[in-house]
TrEMBL record:
The keyword NADP does not apply. It holds the Pfam family Abhydrolase_1. It comes from Citricoccus nitrophenolicus. Gene3D superfamilies: alpha/beta hydrolase. Residues 27-253 form the AB hydrolase-1 domain. InterPro entries: AB_hydrolase_1 (IPR000073), AB_hydrolase_fold (IPR029058), AB_hydrolase_sf (IPR050266). GO terms for molecular function: hydrolase activity. This is Alpha/beta hydrolase.
């Protein structure tokens, strides 16, 4: 399937890079990668989507080939870019899909701009990272000490904690290459912002259907968090992937694409 790559002006001084494919008149799903990932982290799974689905993957500010302003890397900042991005590429109402901590971003957009969100896909979503002990320790002992250029060794160690066991070496190197495009200030602003952000009061305001996809071998977020989310969000459904870790779309791309396609299609009928 032909895939288009472009950069679009979201607001003065901010261009976001993205890739899109599929029927532009069909139901749309927009993917937002986890912190430090670019749209390229969806490269392989996009191959599993049918042409009938308009699939878009975007690199957030500071990531990949998107612009990298000096500041503005809180959850609120990332969320504030979403609706202008949709408008800039001509999309009115879409399914938003986040991975890991970017689920906090799409959850906020769904709560604040429900007219633009037909549904949410939350892949390996944490319940919260607010004052999370392990995240606070990561920020204090590793991220706060980063300087440019960020060390490839640091990036490789960071990725090794979540990378699929049988990931293709070339794909891993592409992942490393993309993360090395992220400046130290973006790492610091992003992860520092996550431990200060609490959206517990927003979850009950999400009225769109929500599909949670979680791997039972995930070492970053647990089943209790998924169950708590299905309780806190009014119209949430959880699907568990047996033997899969923190990145279901990489470890079981065909099932991930099939589940997302069915969800997106059901909301368009």
């Amino acid at each position: 399937m032909q895939r288009q790559q472009a950069r679009v002006v979201v607001r003065p001084g901010l261009h976001l890079a993205y890739a899109s494919q599929g029927d532009t008149s069909g139901p749309a799903v927009v993917f937002f990668p986890g912190p430090t990932d670019s749209w390229r982290s969806y490269d392989a799974v996009l191959d599993h989507f049918p042409p009938s689905v308009h699939a878009v993957a975007v690199s957030a500010r500071g990531h990949g080939d998107s612009d990298k302003p000096e500041a503005g890397y809180s959850v609120q900042d990332y969320a504030a870019d979403v609706v202008p991005f949709l408008t800039a590429i001509g999309l009115r109402r879409v399914v938003l899909a986040g991975h890991s901590a970017s689920c906090l971003v799409v959850r906020r957009v769904a709560a604040e701009s429900p007219e633009r969100v037909a549904g949410l896909v939350l892949e390996a979503s944490p319940l919260t990272l607010y004052q999370h002990p392990e995240m606070e320790d990561f920020v204090a002992t590793a991220v706060s000490n980063l300087s440019d250029p960020v060390s490839p060794g640091f990036v490789r160690t960071f990725l090794s904690g979540t990378a699929p066991r049988d990931q293709d070496p070339a794909a891993f190197e592409t992942h490393v290459e993309q993360l090395l495009k992220v400046p130290a200030r973006v790492w610091q602003g992003t992860f520092g912002g996550l431990v200060e952000y609490d959206d517990a009061g927003l979850l009950g305001r999400i009225q769109t259907p929500v599909l949670l996809l979680w791997g039972e071998a995930d070492r970053r977020v647990g089943l209790l968090e998924q169950e708590a989310l299905t309780t806190a969000i009014p119209h949430a459904e959880l699907r568990v992937y047996a033997g899969v870790g923190h990145i279901p779309r990489m470890e079981d791309p065909s099932r991930f694409a099939a589940d997302v396609t069915a969800f997106v299609t059901s909301l368009a009928t």
